[in-house]
């Protein structure tokens, strides 16, 4: 159901040249029951290339979960702040910290999180990082704050991948960046369009489809060693790779027998096995969170709908019933939510379903290519508006929306990377 294109992938994903245009993030809406948090300036943070406290504030604000209060003062992690005063000012928590340049040139970044209601310390971190990792450390601190105050792991230190199309000429780039769109790096580029990169669960590999051999072939690129493995080079179309949660297998859509069907293969390309068996087209497979099932798109009922079957094959159960055209299923890592694209009312919209209750919600219009954040709380997708394709993020409750755009062409095909250890 998707046209396959060439992907010229390099092993320099983490070392590629920085892209010229960073993404611009626009935020709309807020989450329900926002947590008020005061963020103080970090002591001596001017020695770092960027203000750590500003990175933290931006992350917390972007999540929509927090009402960020500017403490309007600098407070070191070694200080004893008046927590009662901050509580009176409306803050339930206070973030303080410091930055110190070490003799070897690294930065010692420390932070503490205080509960102003119970007047206790909730958390603290102390890390020595290189100056170029200042932003990453800020994201890590924001992740810690998010988790301590919500009980859910934060996603600020994760990365995203997407395809950038240069509108001035026929040039396509596979780009990786921080979850906030900063730190863009070009991982691959070529004259043929790029489509459907898929991160491995440990973030060290990317599966993709390439037409460089004059036919669609599925590869796995190891981003650490540079080794590239052919996973599927069968007769016909080899498409739609997606990883099992443990990273040992991939689900694929192959047309080797005529009509496209679902197959499972080991990550090294061995053990190819067909798992779907219908007279229609079965494609876009996605493993469930526990790896025991596969969600996929099939037209076996006439029009495309989302189905679910055992990862070992067997009888399939239809999942989507509203609307006559439902494609691109994605499952959150916690197994609670299914996202997909549905054509209704003349357009393509992003929907999410609570798998326990079956209740569905329309989250966004003019949407395609959804990808869950690793904590299951946000969905990134491609959207078209004003003649340009951009990326957008919406929370699974639909309350918080972000738009990530660039002045240099279109960006699409988002893939949200996993938590990094």
Description:
This protein has 421 residues and is mostly beta strands. The protein has 2 domains: 34-150, Rossmann fold (3-Layer(aba) Sandwich); 159-416, TolB, C-terminal domain (Neuraminidase). It is 8% helix and 46% strand. It contains 3 helices and 30 strands. It has helices at residues 52-63, 83-88, 134-150, and strands at 24-28, 35-41, 66-74, 93-101, 107-115, 120-129, 159-166, 171-178, 185-190, 198-199, 205-210, 217-222, 228-232, 238-243, 249-254, 261-266, 273-274, 282-287, 293-298, 305-310, 317-318, 326-331, 337-344, 347-354, 360-365, 367-372, 378-385, 388-395, 401-405, 410-416. The strands form 7 sheets. The protein has a 5-stranded antiparallel beta sheet, with no helix packed on it. A 5-stranded mixed beta sheet has the order 3-2-4-5-6. Strand 11 (205-210) and strand 12 (217-222) form a beta hairpin. Helix 1 (52-63) crosses helix 3. The protein is globular. The two termini are 35 Å apart. The model is unreliable at 1-21 (pLDDT under 50).
Span of the ends, CA to CA = 35 Å
Helix count, DSSP H or I runs of 4 or more residues? 3
Percent in strands: over 45%
Number of domains: 2
What is the name of the CATH superfamily of the largest domain? TolB, C-terminal domain
Bulk shape? globular
Radius of gyration: 23 Å
- Give the low-confidence spans: 1-21
Strand order of the largest sheet: 1-29-28-27-26
CATH C-level name of the largest domain = Mainly Beta
Structural class: mainly beta
Average pLDDT confidence is 88
Overall helicity: under 10%
CATH fold descriptor of the largest domain:
Neuraminidase
| Major sheet details | 5 strands, antiparallel
CATH-defined architecture of the largest domain: 6 Propeller
Number of separate strands: 30
Domain TolB N-terminal: 23-122
Keywords: Cell cycle, Cell division, Periplasm, Signal
Subcellular location: Periplasm
Family: Belongs to the TolB family.
């Amino acid at each position: 159901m998707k046209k396959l294109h060439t992907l010229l992938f390099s092993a320099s994903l983490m070392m590629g040249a920085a892209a010229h245009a960073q993404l611009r993030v626009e935020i709309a809406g807020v989450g329900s029951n926002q947590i008020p948090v005061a963020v103080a300036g970090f002591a001596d943070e001017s020695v770092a290339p960027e203000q750590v406290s500003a990175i933290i504030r931006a992350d917390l604000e972007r999540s929509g979960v927090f009402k960020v209060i500017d403490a309007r003062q600098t407070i070191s992690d070694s200080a004893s702040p008046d927590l009662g005063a901050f509580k009176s000012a409306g803050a339930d928590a206070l973030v303080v910290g410091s930055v110190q340049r070490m003799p070897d040139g690294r930065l010692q970044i420390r932070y503490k999180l205080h509960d102003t209601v119970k007047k206790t310390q909730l958390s603290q971190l102390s890390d020595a990082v290189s100056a170029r990792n200042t932003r990453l450390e800020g994201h890590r601190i924001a992740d810690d704050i998010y988790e301590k105050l919500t009980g859910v792991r934060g996603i600020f230190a994760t990365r995203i991948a997407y395809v950038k199309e240069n509108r001035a000429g026929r040039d396509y780039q596979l780009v990786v960046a921080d979850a906030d769109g900063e730190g863009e790096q070009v991982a691959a580029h070529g004259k043929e369009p790029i489509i459907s990169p898929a991160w491995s669960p440990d973030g060290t590999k990317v599966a993709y489809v390439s037409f460089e051999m004059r036919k669609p072939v599925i590869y796995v690129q190891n981003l650490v060693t540079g080794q590239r493995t052919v996973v599927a080079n069968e007769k016909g179309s080899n498409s739609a790779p997606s990883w099992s949660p443990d990273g040992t297998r991939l689900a694929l859509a192959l047309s080797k027998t005529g009509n496209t069907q679902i197959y499972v293969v080991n990550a090294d390309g061995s053990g190819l096995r067909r798992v779907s068996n219908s007279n229609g087209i079965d494609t876009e497979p996605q493993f469930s969170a526990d790896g025991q099932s596969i969600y996929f798109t099939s037209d076996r009922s006439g029009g495309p709908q989302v189905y679910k079957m055992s990862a070992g094959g067997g009888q399939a159960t239809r999942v989507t019933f509203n609307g006559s055209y439902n494609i691109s299923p994605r499952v959150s890592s916690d197994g609670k939510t299914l996202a997909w694209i549905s054509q209704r009312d003349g357009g393509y919209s992003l929907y999410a379903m609570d798998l326990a209750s079956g209740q569905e919600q329309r989250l966004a219009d003019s949407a395609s290519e959804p990808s869950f954040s690793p904590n299951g709380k946000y969905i990134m997708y491609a959207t078209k508006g004003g003649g340009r394709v951009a990326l957008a993020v919406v929370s699974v409750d639909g309350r918080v929306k972000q738009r990530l755009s660039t002045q240099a062409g279109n960006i699409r095909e988002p893939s949200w990377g996993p938590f990094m250890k």
